[in-house]
Amino acid sequence: MGGNLVPDGFASVRDGLVAAIDMLAGSGFSHISRSSWYETAPVPISEQPWYVNAVIAAQTSLAPEDALAALHKIEAQFGRTRSVRNAARVLDIDLLDLDGLVRGSAELTLPHPRMHDRAFVLLPLRDVAPAWRHPVSGMDISAMMAAMPTGQDIRRAD
Fold it and tell me: Which of 14, 22, 85, 92 is catalytic?
């Protein structure tokens, strides 16, 4: 999850993200844990403000499409509109993995198709699930980090 614009009614991007995490429990998710916070430059590089990112680990009994719909509903409650790809946003919640399920459809691809290339996913993922392996490639987080594209600016922020 992440964002780089302050949602209406909040003092900071991080405050909005914390509120979104709190909403997960009422949206079909339980046993919620959060990685450290990270500040990251936009990908691709642009003049946008830096993002605040974290990875959330949670359990759910929701079907994959229902889990994604629940996440999109939370985004919408924070004023997220999907217009231009990679545009600045108040909240972005991606479904990265769901119990190792491999799925490709127009609505949902699991695992997330670009997660292995993104420092802002892999570093916080290592915080909450250090033994996680990509269900398609079988690579662990360290191997994906070694293979990921260079030049991604990221710093721990807590």
Answer: 92
Give yes or no: 80 in active site: yes
Establish whether 126 is a catalytic residue: no
Round to whole Å and give the CA distance between 137 and 21. Answer: 29
Active site residue 94: yes
* Nearest CA-CA partner of 63 in 108, 26, 19: 108
Q: Which of the following is catalytic: 80, 118, 126, 127?
A: 80
| Cα 37 to Cα 33: distance, rounded to the nearest angstrom | 12
The predicted model scores a pTM of 0.93
Domain ranges (residues) in the chain: 2-156
Strands 109-110, 29-34: pairing is: unpaired
Q: Please report, in tens digits, the pLDDT of each residue of the chain (158 residues total).
A: 999 999 999 999 999 999 999 999 999 999 999 999 999 999 777 889 999 999 999 999 999 999 999 999 999 999 887 777 777 899 999 999 999 999 999 899 999 999 999 999 999 999 999 999 999 999 999 999 999 999 899 999 98
Architecture of domain 2-156: 2-Layer Sandwich (3.30)
Task: Indicate left, alpha or beta for 9 from its phi (over 0: left) and psi (-120 to 50: alpha).
Answer: left
> Distance between terminal CA atoms of the chain?
16
